[in-house]
Amino acid sequence: MSAPVSWAQLPWGEYYREAIDRQLKPWLGKLYGFHLLKIGNLSAEINTEACAISHQVNISLEGSPMQVLADPLHLPFAEKSVDACLLAHTMPWCSDPHRMLREADRVLIDDGWLIISSFNPVSLMGLRKLFPVLRKSVPYNSRMFTMTRQLDWLALLNFEVLHQSRFQVLPWAKQGGVMLSTHLPALGCLQLIVARKRTIPLTLNPMRQNKAKSRIPQAVGATRQYRKPPDA
Q1: What's the rounded Cα separation, in Å, for the pair 161 and 159?
Q2: What is the DSSP string of 153-198?
Q3: Helix spans in the chain (H)
Q4: Using alpha carbons only, what angle is made at residue 180 by residues 177 and 185, rounded to the nearest 5 degrees?
Q5: pLDDT by residue (tens digit) across 148-170?
Q6: Residues 122-140: tens digit of each pLDDT
Q7: Domains of the chain
Q8: What are the CA-CA distances from residue 10 to residues 3, 115, 141 (Å)?
């Protein structure tokens, strides 16, 4: 799959970028830490000036502006060294999206932030992908994952999803069709997920719960003491 190196290479790509900027802006102020990793060319063009993390690194195999030229599937960073990762439409053109998520999970610190944007297959964008004549052109040559599928992947990696949304119902409209986006957000051609890496399992293990409730065995050699009641 040939991935675009800029939003300008996508039909109505600038509209998509601006829509993601608007959806992401309320969350940028909540991100904190020392390092923000923007993975992929499209991530590099997302406006993250409102983010409190000052050290922001763009990483991709090609394009500009890139601070690190590397394969997103083999991030050249130590484990638990990054506070936040941005994957803005990086997975749709990735040969192994599961591995990309595992790499992001590897470099993120505990409670680190993961932000993912992608195309919604259940949308006008997804319908256009059904036409064979369009399948070889950008962005219809990309892979489109449902929201449910992405949430399942994140659950397996023990991420807590704080926000999920769909927007930009009309791909060719600058505001995405305000009325449609308000009343039919499920048909939005763009998706956004904001999640945090958790260290404590979100689902309690029933076996461990039962063990925790079991009676404490009597210590060896322990005896019961009988105290005579006081005389009336």
Answers
A1: 6
A2: HHHHTTEEEEEEEEE-SSTTSTTS-HHHHHH-GGG-SEEEEEEEE-
A3: 13-28, 41-44, 97-107, 124-128, 147-156, 178-183, 206-213
A4: 110
A5: 999 999 999 999 999 999 999 99
A6: 999 888 888 887 878 888 8
A7: 7-197 (3.40.50.150)
A8: 10, 21, 11
